[in-house]
Design a protein that fits this description.
5% of the residues lie in helices and 40% in strands. By secondary structure, it is mostly beta strands. The protein has one domain: Metal Binding Protein, Guanine Nucleotide Exchange Factor, Chain A, CATH 2.170.150. It is globular, with a radius of gyration of 14 Å. The model has no long low-confidence stretch (mean pLDDT 94). One zinc ion binds next to loops.
Amino acid sequence: MTDTNEKHEGGCLCGAVRYALHGAPTYSAHCHCRSCQHAVGAGFATWSGAKPENFEVTKGEITIHESSPGVRRGFCGNCGTSLTYAGDDWTDIAVLSATLDDPGVAKPATNVYLDHKQPWVILDEKLRKYDKFP
Ligand SMILES: [Zn+2]
Ligand SMILES: [Zn+2]
């Protein structure tokens, strides 16, 4: 846990799963990869990071789907809301920013996996751009 009292809560659509991030998100980024597009059923997914020790499930439990070897995508087993991303070669856990109670606290700074971007997605050109992952 961090020594700050900053805390950001979030959860799924039905309320069965709730979580808290302690401290400010370590990053926020739009990911345009095809796996994220499928996982969230949208043109891209917006993620916010947290150190694993600063992420806490406060209600219910997260169901895990291994979408690629070593990649664990978490969702609510009741309503299906996509919630988290964790990977073996990944130090932070990521939550889908839109599942935060106040998504405004996680303003994205970056677009990643633009190789997979859908042509109908319009980018904010002020954000950092990466064809794959930095
Ligand atoms: Zn749910
Ligand atoms: Zn992705």
